[in-house]
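Page 47, continued from p. 46.
Same chain as before, 376 aa.
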Amino acid sequence: MDSLRIGFLIDRWEPERGGAERALAALAGHLESRGHRILVFGARESATPEKAPGTFHRVKAWGLTRPARELSLGRHLVAAAAAAGCGLTLGIRHLPRVDFYWPHGGSHLATWQALRRARGRAEEGSPRGRHRTFIALEEKLLARGGARRIVCVSELVRRELVRFYPACRNRLRVIPNGIDLDRFHPRAREGVGQELRRRIGLEEEMPLLLFPAANPRLKGLDPLTRVLARLTGRPWHLLAAGAPRSRCTPYLRRLPRERVTWLRRADGAALAAAADLLVLPAWREPFGLAIAEALACGTPVITTTRAGAADLIEGEQAGRVLAHPADLAGLAAALEDFLGRPRPSGEERLQVRRNVIGLDRARWLRRLEEELLSLA
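Result:
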């Protein structure tokens, strides 16, 4: 296929933030290597633009309120890409229209409902402010045909989009996030994993529990710390990574200070390899890249059915999937079980890794490329 001008529409072009931005940058770099021209339209550029693929174009938004600015930014992003002659557009944020919609967060309506559940509120109610704006734009994209193709990061996301917006069913494709299987590997435990454990002053024999999440409430830090507060008779150390300290503190103060380490940022491979167990009793996790990365390193996972990547967990060695994040007894039993096990052997770690062997990064990028270019 001839070279295309492809517009990437995003709030902030900051691949270093991780998550959706990192995935989008990986696809942009792949498409550039295939000869396509990537034009990125966003409100904010990376602090290290030389490391970010594509040509960045700043787009301004206007409005006195957050909802007004969100609507303005969406309209201006679409208009800027059209004015630049982009033959295809790809977006991960809510927009009036786009060719290829890649909602890493799944349905915003589902996220809003999960936030209410995590706060102990009823799912019913009327969204306000930015939530109402995002859900209105989501309806345009999914129910009214504003997005020509929608890529879901998990089967969980596909099911919820069909439930809320049945008209989009035939435009949905499921492509789970890919990972670098060379970088995320059990052998990393003896390298970057051990370095991280030494950095936080952890003895080799001490079981390290990893909680990685930018949104501690939604990802289940509340139930996790409630359960761990009852398990102080067992050896364990909790590493909470990825969230601002202020969001974690209300939950972490339930635990003895010497049993907790907080890190704002850390290398993903080091986290996955250093941990003995990843625990994410999520109220909502559309995919859960950290889950896949941990499994690739041979690290078992405890999570819930609310995580899209829970489908990857097969076999007793790989972890446990709880039916509900508020099942404190089930979470306690799962933690007791894994903390009582001997340290897994190298072969057992490789067995855990086999659950994600199909998430090869190169295959993932090729599948995304095929879906995107099929719209040209």
